[in-house]
Amino acid sequence: MDRRKFVKISAIGSAAIVLDPSKEDKVKLNNHSFTKGNSTVISTWKPGLEANKFAWKILSKNGKSIDAVEAGVRVIESDANNKSVGIGGLPDKNGIVTLDACIMDHNYNCGSVAFLQDIEHPISVARKVMEDTPHVMLCGKGALDFAIEKGFSKTNLLTPEAENDWKKWKELQTEKLPEINHENHDTIGMLAIDEDGDLSGACTTSGWAYKLHGRVGDSPIIGAGLYVDNEIGAACATGLGEAIIKISGSHLVVELMRQGLKPNEACYEAVQRIKKTNKNLKDLQVGFLALNKKGEHAGHSMYAGFNYALKNSKTDKLIDTKYEMEW
Ligand code: SD4
């Protein structure tokens, strides 16, 4: 979409809101209504195919989207072969696995944990933060203590394979971090809409491999790694968290949809914003996913290779997104 058309759409949107502030009419105007039978789940990268199956078990029985996204991403948190999430995630510079996760429901309720250690399911701790505390975000030792108090048990997250990879990296005697690129992505962001037309999302990761101890990425930050607005749609992000945080990426995608953009246009615009706000785009992979109230979905990434898994009553497949550049 060209800039002029986008500005025109924004202007029409604002004028209509001024003329008719009723929420119902605004939603109708923007054509953001949900039709029964359209419940859908999408999630980042190929492992999302497996995660979606578990989310779908809940959605297909008229379950809530919040339960679906939690159940879906937990599958990947438990997958020791996935080097970007939960058990088996690559550690930080000091050889310690630290996890980030967040969850958000259709009522703007959200919960998040960052820099969490020794807990297999950060997403479920994030949900407890959302449901059992007046806070949104807990981190580090405080998040761990809270998890233990809530009955989660400690687990060693560093697998021998991940430890070996870390040792090899150490032996290179380089301070250089591996780029977040097509080889070391798998963070899972998942968005779902249920039969009541309610949207939810979840995002969970072990973050950037060999990051500085204490580094937190976009994934646990509401508005950066994930955002859900039940009137409009939901979005999540994967890739270089530092670039995503700078533009509040997922919130941006949802707000662009509020202005009338389709999911593909909104994700495209967010990637353009990353282009504008970063001087060096070499190896700067980011990918956005969006799902709107009608169950329409899309993604867009900076570099080739980003894909997302889709499941609904009609289909179960992996979709390659459009992108800006080849590697
Ligand atoms: C981060 N966004 O910690 C995450 C990394 C990621 O696939 O998405 N990897 O910056």
List the helices and strands and how they pair.
Blueprint (H helix, E strand, L loop, with lengths): L2 H17 L3 H7 L10 E5 L3 H12 L5 H13 L21 E6 L5 E7 L5 H11 L4 E3 H10 L10 H12 L16 E6 L5 E7 L20 E4 L3 E7 L1 H6 L2 H10 L4 H15 L8 E7 L4 E7 L3 E6 L3 E5 L1 E4 L2
Parallel strand pairs: 3-4, 10-13
Antiparallel strand pairs: 1-5, 1-11, 2-3, 2-6, 5-6, 7-8, 8-9, 9-10, 11-12
Helix pairs in contact: 3-4, 4-5, 9-10
N-hydroxy-L-asparagine binds next to strand 8.
Task: Give a short overview.
The protein is an alpha+beta fold. The chain contains 10 helices and 13 strands. The strands form 2 sheets. An 8-stranded mixed sheet has the order 4-3-2-6-5-1-11-12. The protein has a 5-stranded mixed sheet with strand order 7-8-9-10-13.
Describe the structure in your own words.
This protein is of the alpha+beta class and 327 residues long. The chain has a single domain (33-325), classed as 4-Layer Sandwich (Glutamine Phosphoribosylpyrophosphate, subunit 1, domain 1). The chain is 35% helix and 23% strand. It is built from 10 helices and 13 strands. It has helices at 3-19, 23-29, 48-59, 65-77, 122-132, 140-149, 160-171, 241-246, 249-258, 263-277, and strands spanning 40-44, 99-104, 110-116, 137-139, 188-193, 199-205, 226-229, 233-239, 286-292, 297-303, 307-312, 316-320, 322-325. The strands form 2 sheets. Strands 4-3-2-6-5-1-11-12 form an 8-stranded mixed beta sheet. Strands 7-8-9-10-13 form a 5-stranded mixed beta sheet. Strand 7 and strand 8 form a beta hairpin. The two termini are 25 Å apart. The structure holds N-hydroxy-L-asparagine. The site of N-hydroxy-L-asparagine has 15 residues, from strand 8. N-hydroxy-L-asparagine is lined by residues 84, 180, 185-187, 205, 207-208, 217-219, 238-241.
